[in-house]
Design a protein that fits this description.
8 strands, 2 helices, alpha+beta, single chain, about 30% strand, three-stranded antiparallel beta sheet
Length: about 120
């Protein structure tokens, strides 16, 4: 009986792991409209914001939800501070573990930026 209980427990544990892994691969969702401004990021039609100074981990997770998918690249500026880029062209810069600036390149090559950026 004891062996049966351990077998059932083991099968449930493995099944639970399998379903969690499957859910983790479904990362693409519909984008949530947002604008970039002098203080950070403003959600359209919402009072919610992502302001400069927010932690890097929470900012990246929030942007993943806004853009509808994770970043396309991560790199570092010449000064060693990291930045993250999403498919929609938004690039967020971080220093000291916090969101410090953004830049975005439009389809026509125009670059807008606010806060601290590379260079």
């Amino acid at each position: 009986m004891k062996q049966l209980v351990f077998s059932l427990f083991g099968m449930a544990l493995v099944a639970g792991c399998a379903s969690t892994d499957g859910a983790a691969t479904a990362t693409k969702t519909d984008p949530i409209p947002y604008t970039l401004d002098s203080r950070g990021i403003q959600l359209v039609a919402s009072p919610l914001r992502i302001d400069f100074g927010r932690t890097d981990h929470s900012t990246v997770a929030a942007m993943d939800k806004l853009v509808g998918q994770g970043p396309v690249s991560r790199a570092v500026c010449p000064d060693g501070s990291p930045f993250v880029v999403w498919a929609d062209g938004t690039r967020l810069n971080f220093r000291g573990g916090a969101f410090r600036g953004w830049s975005k390149t439009a389809a026509d090559g125009t670059v807008q930026a606010a806060g601290q950026t590379c260079g």
